[in-house]
Structures are given as structure tokens and as C-alpha cells.
Design brief:
Blueprint (H helix, E strand, L loop, with lengths): L10 H15 L5 H17 L5 H16 L3 E5 L1 H6 L1 H11 L2 E4 L6 H13 L5 E2 L6 E3 L9 E3 L8 E5 L3 H9 L3 E5 L6 H5 L2 E3 L3 H15 L4 H10 L2 H18 L2
Parallel strand pairs: 1-2, 1-6, 2-3, 6-7, 7-8
Antiparallel strand pairs: 4-5
Helix pairs in contact: 1-2, 3-9, 3-10, 3-11, 5-9
Length: 251
């Protein structure tokens, strides 16, 4: 592992890249995942590499929905496992959500490595690796159509961080509430989700954990009220407008 000087102006970004590089060497991350991260990082520049008030509003609604779900599931791919393994396990524990491995570039070995990595960071149960429980979502044409009968297939709420658009659209058509974490507010994923957190996952997950603690014990009706008042279209428009203003300021 390369030593990143704390005083380096890009220290945080370099440490994130280093985590992904280590995840690649460990077999969790594929080359395409590295490219996807770079694309997201470009949008993070537009945000000023900070969590906005719009993202915080989406985070609150997302956690409220996870807490009200009868069978919530957090979908985990290689980048998520490499970047925030402890955080995703903690969020699942706090919200009662199940963890399921679901990857675009699929192989049984990679699924196993991701599940093992999550277990090494405290997960007790990880779905998505046992063929006897596998089923398919016919509307999806990639390997992400394979889901676990005990998890995403029967879930009412699904958190899909770092997702591809076709599965988000398919999950919505199946009547599931979909929460996305996506730095690009223009993506199909961001546009199709019920709730889109326009933020870097390494900032969003710790905030979701804190929000889950804050909302613990809130009556179900109160949590549902948070979701009903949430307007994803407004959040996306506000995020795009913020990026536009920042670009104008930099001209």
C-alpha cells in the first residue's frame, strides 16, 4: 500500500483510489469498476467534494424508508465492498436490512470473495452466493438479473449504491422502493430511483448510520411521513443546479 501524505491536497481522494486498487488486487473490484469510480469522482468535483443539504435530505428519507420496510435489502457490488465494508454491515444491522451480493461482471469466485470480505467486517449473513436460492428478474439482461429469493427478489425496499440503470428501472417496475447512491444526478439510476442520494458513498454511508441511530424508536407513521414529504425530482433538480452554479463560478 502506498503511503498517502496527510497534507497532500488530494489525500482523501487518493486514499479512496487506494482502497479500490487494493480491492482490485483482492479480486473484489473489476477494471470496469475502477473506470466507474473515476466517472463518479468527476461529478464529486462539481459538488465541491462535500455532502450537500440536498443529499442530507435524501439520506434522511432513505433511512426512514429502510426502517419502515418489511424486508429491506442492501445490494453490494465490488466497489461498495472495497470502499465501505464495515459501514454497509453497520447500516444493515441498524435498519434490519439483509445484505446481498449482486454484481454486473459476475463469477461465483468473485461473489464468494465479496461475501467473505463482508463477513470479515462483521456481517453474519450474506445472501446472493447460493445457487439453490437463485432466481432471475426477466426484465434485466445483464448478470445482475440473478437475485436471491430470500433477498432482493422478495424485498419491498432495496438500497442499490453504485448501481446500473436497467436494474433500478426493473426493480421499480416490480413495485419495490429503490434507494440509489449516485454522484451523477443525470444518470438513469438517479432518475429512476424513488430516492437518490447525490453524494460520494464514503461520505453518505457514515451519515446514514448516524441518521439510523437518530431515527431509532421513531413511530412508523412518523417515518412514513418523512418519506411522503420527500420529492426526489426536486432533489435532483437542486443538485444539478448546484453543479451548474459551481461550474459558472469556476469560469
Amino acid at each position: 500500500m502506498t503511503l498517502v501524505e496527510p497534507g497532500h491536497p488530494r489525500a482523501k481522494s487518493l486514499k479512496i483510489r487506494e482502497r479500490l486498487a487494493e480491492g482490485f488486487k483482492a479480486g473484489l473490484v473489476v477494471p470496469e469498476g475502477l473506470a466507474a469510480h473515476g466517472r463518479g469522482e468527476a461529478f464529486d468535483y462539481f459538488l465541491g467534494e462535500r455532502t450537500t443539504s440536498h443529499a442530507r435530505e435524501a439520506i434522511r428519507a432513505a433511512v426512514a424508508v429502510l426502517l419502515t420496510g418489511e424486508s429491506p435489502v442492501i445490494s453490494v457490488n465490488g466497489n461498495v465492498a472495497a470502499l465501505v465494508p464495515s459501514e454497509v454491515v453497520r447500516l444493515a444491522d441498524l435498519t434490519g436490512a439483509k445484505l446481498e451480493v449482486n454484481i454486473y461482471h459476475r463469477s461465483p469466485e468473485r461473489e464468494r470473495l465479496i461475501a467473505e470480505h463482508l463477513r470479515n467486517h462483521g456481517a453474519k449473513t450474506v445472501l446472493g452466493t447460493e445457487e439453490e436460492y437463485a432466481t432471475k428478474i426477466p426484465e434485466i439482461h445483464s448478470d445482475r438479473r440473478k437475485v436471491d429469493k430470500r433477498g432482493i427478489a422478495s424485498a419491498d425496499v432495496v438500497l442499490v449504491p453504485l448501481e446500473d440503470g436497467d436494474r433500478t428501472e426493473a426493480l421499480r417496475k416490480l413495485g419495490k422502493v429503490v434507494i440509489a447512491i449516485d454522484l451523477n444526478p443525470l444518470s438513469r439510476t438517479a432518475q429512476a430511483a424513488n430516492i437518490t442520494i447525490v453524494d460520494n458513498i464514503v461520505r453518505a454511508l457514515p451519515l446514514m448510520i448516524e441518521e439510523a441511530k437518530a431515527l431509532a424508536g421513531t413511530p412508523r407513521e412518523g417515518l412514513l411521513r418523512i418519506f411522503r414529504r420527500y420529492d426526489n425530482g426536486k432533489i435532483l433538480r437542486s443538485s444539478i443546479e448546484l453543479m451548474r452554479r459551481r461550474l459558472q463560478e469556476l469560469e
